[in-house]
Design brief:
5-stranded antiparallel beta sheet; 430 residues
Length: 430
């Protein structure tokens, strides 16, 4: 009976320990998700070049090397998001590419006068140049101005939006779908894109000179009828000299969005943030990303074609030294604070004379962080033949022979001189 009672006691105690262990495990898991900062994330290493931790409030973001298209850093860059007024960069480039005369004047339709929230009002019948409508769309983000441009190009907004979606696919923004020209999304639930697609669209747009000039304009004066209207760029980050555009956006559904083009220290970037929690956080997110890039990443000449890599000796009956050079320069954007760069040279084992200029003698492999990223030929920079080697050796022997003869002549002259002087001295003493 005593043993039985002890068994029951042990079972009850075991149950208590099991319940306690389960509760403890639950609390650990809960605290992990609750206390871990959801904004401080690692990039997807399959998508981005770097996966440094950068704490931002934006729901999605991406930093792209403008010249190569490489994604340097990203956060949820393939997630579908509302783009708000960033939409206007696509609608504007479509308008630019379909309008021959930007100085042409158009009248604002009843539909384009609209009820959309904009910095100044349109009335049906107002007159404006197409260029001023474009400036209003991109600088002060006028929602009706872009509608008026769409109607001028296609007759109505719906047909123009078809051109926008076609252009998006042409650019490579294959995950995007646009339902209007200005990004207002209350009645456009499927009007969505991704941070990655917006970067592709912005990169395409920046190549256009007119577009690039307008998005880098802090303030301007446009005319509606005969009235002059001062417009100010919604992108306050243009106050930073290295930031050259592009566009801001905001709706309740989209949050605060931003796409930037920047140039600094030979590095051009497209930076996109979407779904930031406030205007201040939006700007802070973007500057934090830019600061990380420009503080860590730098173009470095890893291989210099003018510098010999190594000297090898040829095989065969005649041995000669051959300097090997890289076939070309290699410049790479690297993280100067963390990337480890190595060079491995591989030389052919059967090199014999004669050697011709630009003969490939081997390869050099550029390795970054234990990953081979480039292979470059190792070449000779001059012709070297057996005859040349023989001639050089013959010349060298002739020089050596002359030196020996001179030495012998001097030696015998001094010897004879000493003997003669010695004999003369001996005769005097006698």
């Amino acid at each position: 009976m005593m043993v039985r009672g002890s068994s029951v006691s042990i079972q009850r105690s075991s149950k208590k320990y099991c319940i306690f262990a389960c509760l403890l495990t639950f609390l650990i898991i809960f605290s992990f998700f609750f206390f871990t900062d959801p904004d401080e994330i690692l990039c997807d290493p399959e998508t981005a070049v770097y996966n440094d931790r950068i704490n931002i409030s934006a729901e999605a973001a991406v930093v792209v090397n403008y010249e190569t298209g490489d994604i340097l850093w990203e956060k949820n860059s393939s997630a579908l998001m509302y783009p708000a007024s960033i939409t206007k960069i696509l609608s504007s480039i479509v308008a630019i590419e379909n309008i021959n005369d930007m100085e042409a004047i158009t009248k604002i339709s009843k539909n384009a006068s609209g009820k959309n929230h904009s910095t100044f009002r349109f009335k049906s019948g107002d007159s404006m140049t197409l260029l001023d409508l474009l400036k209003a769309s991109l600088i002060c983000s006028h929602n009706n101005a872009i509608v008026a441009l769409a109607e001028y190009v296609s007759g109505n907004e719906e047909d123009f939006v078809k051109l926008m979606n076609e252009k998006a696919k042409e650019i490579g923004a294959v995950n995007s779908f646009f339902q209007n020209t200005n990004g207002l999304d209350d009645a456009a639930p499927y009007h969505k894109t991704t941070a990655s697609d917006i970067a592709k669209i912005a990169s395409y747009c920046i190549k256009n000179e007119l577009f690039r000039e307008i998005v880098n304009t802090k303030e301007d004066v446009i005319r509606k009828n005969k009235e002059e209207i001062e417009i100010i760029n919604t992108n306050t980050l243009l106050n930073h000299d290295y930031i050259k555009g592009v566009k801001t956006g905001y709706t309740i559904n989209a949050g605060f969005c931003l796409v930037l083009y920047s140039e600094k220290e030979n590095l051009k970037l497209i930076t996109v943030t979407m779904g930031s929690s406030s205007l201040e956080e939006r700007d802070r997110d973007a500057l934090k990303l830019l600061d990380w890039v420009y503080s860590n990443l730098e173009y470095v000449k890893i291989v210099d074609l003018k510098q010999p890599v190594l000297t090898i000796s040829t095989g065969g009956p005649t041995i000669a030294g051959v300097d090997l050079y890289p076939g070309r320069d290699y410049i790479k954007l690297i993280n100067i604070n963390s990337d480890v760069v190595d060079i491995e040279n591989r030389v052919k084992s059967d090199i014999v004379l004669p050697v011709k200029e630009n003969d490939i003698m081997g390869t050099m492999e550029v390795i970054v962080n234990d990953k081979k990223i480039e292979e470059i030929d190792l070449i000779a920079r001059e012709d070297i033949s057996d005859a040349l080697i023989y001639e050089e050796l013959s010349t060298q022997k002739e020089v050596e022979t002359i030196y020996i003869l001179i030495f012998l002549i001097v030696f015998y002259f001094l010897t004879f001189t000493i003997i003669i002087v010695r004999n003369l001295l001996l005769k005097r003493h006698i």
